[in-house]
Design brief:
single chain, 12 helices, two-stranded antiparallel sheet, elongated, 11 strands, 39% helix
């Protein structure tokens, strides 16, 4: 029977391997990876943990199918080799063979990021390597999207059996997580930029939804151009929505019960259009039912964010700050100033 210290050590190694797995596939900053913990283990045990890390990262089946960027893998393997060479162990051919394979791979402008869900399933996204690409920020996943995804997992009752509309869906992380974990009846992804819409459709396919191929090249007009994906209990659509030209008639057709938007407050010039869309959504349903709107923002520019909140007040839209998720599931800077707001029309006084 193994002693308690041996079990603790196994648990510690398992936790380390899990951390490397999660952070590697999400392409988290390598400076925050548990390198120091790895050094501690290498000082007290053999170097087999290095091969275990390889199997959880670069040699994992997910990496072969949906790899992080070439540059990311190169930096990761170089650091892993340094840790191994700092020990007295013989050179590990597997490490050098893995690095050689990466060095022979041509870099692309696209890469894959994968996020592990509590169920063990993963969400994989094809994203642009650049934060701003093709004139848009919508080709990458931002921190507020990760935070909102965690928050939705903790609050599935808000979305279960409802029609959910997402504004500014970007790469699709929040919506895909929500569709996989919260059981909405219908989910409507929206964005405006053609490249973002194309990437969004691709990410929906990657994550197991069937996409209507007849809609793929219809990307230039608003709602008539719809791509749909179905499961037995869920309808998913991707639609083009330009906030500057959105009309009450078109928005009312959506019959949204819940509206979510993440990291959409970044440009003072688009704030009036965004708030106008919020107001129309809150007032345009034919059955007079008011949807609930949730907006998550990373506060990068306090002046811009305050302008957004002031404009909400001026439009008669009430704000409630909601608590952030209790548990961190995805790797991002949890210390970032992220705020989740619940928006509803303010009740008018009878007097």
């Amino acid at each position: 029977m193994r002693n308690e210290d041996g079990k603790k050590n196994d648990d510690y190694v398992d936790s380390l391997l899990h951390a490397f797995h999660v952070q590697f596939f999400a392409m988290n900053r390598q400076s925050v990876m548990p390198w120091e913990s790895l050094e501690e283990i290498l000082q007290t045990s053999d170097t087999s943990v290095i091969q275990d890390i390889l199997q959880k990262t670069v040699l994992h089946p997910l990496c072969k199918k949906y790899p992080p960027s070439v540059k990311y893998r190169k930096i990761f393997l170089t650091e892993l080799i340094k840790k191994h060479e700092a020990t007295a162990a013989e050179p590990d051919d597997m490490l050098y063979e893995a690095l050689a394979a990466v060095l022979c791979t041509e870099e692309s402008t696209l890469c894959y990021k994968s996020y592990l869900l509590p169920t063990g399933e993963s969400v994989t996204l094809c994203e642009s390597i650049a934060a701003i690409s093709e004139g848009t920020t919508g080709l990458v996943t931002w921190e507020a999207a990760l935070c909102t995804a965690e928050w939705s997992i903790e609050n599935p009752h808000l979305f279960s059996d409802r029609t959910v509309l997402e504004l500014g869906s970007g790469a699709g992380l929040t919506g895909i997580v929500l569709c996989k974990t919260c059981h909405p009846r219908k989910y409507i992804f929206t964005d405006c930029h053609p490249s973002v819409l194309q990437g969004l459709r691709k990410n929906i396919l990657i994550n197991g939804f069937l996409l209507d191929s007849t809609s793929w090249d219809q990307t230039t007009v608003d709602f008539p151009n719809t791509s749909c994906a179905w499961s037995k209990e869920l309808s998913v659509s991707v639609r083009r929505l330009d906030w500057a030209t959105a009309t009450e008639e078109k928005l009312s057709q959506l019959q949204a019960d819940v509206v979510i938007a993440t990291d959409v407050v970044y440009d003072p010039e688009i704030i009036p259009y965004l708030i106008n869309v919020f107001y129309m959504l809150l007032t345009s349903r034919s059955d007079k039912t008011q949807p609930v709107i949730y907006v998550a923002s990373t506060v990068r520019n306090p002046d811009t964010y305050q302008l957004f909140k002031d404009k909400l007040d001026n439009s008669g839209i009430g704000q409630e700050i909601l608590p952030r998720p209790e548990k961190v599931l995805f790797p991002y800077d949890w210390a970032s100033d992220i705020e989740i707001l619940k928006l509803e029309l303010e009740k008018k006084s009878d007097t």
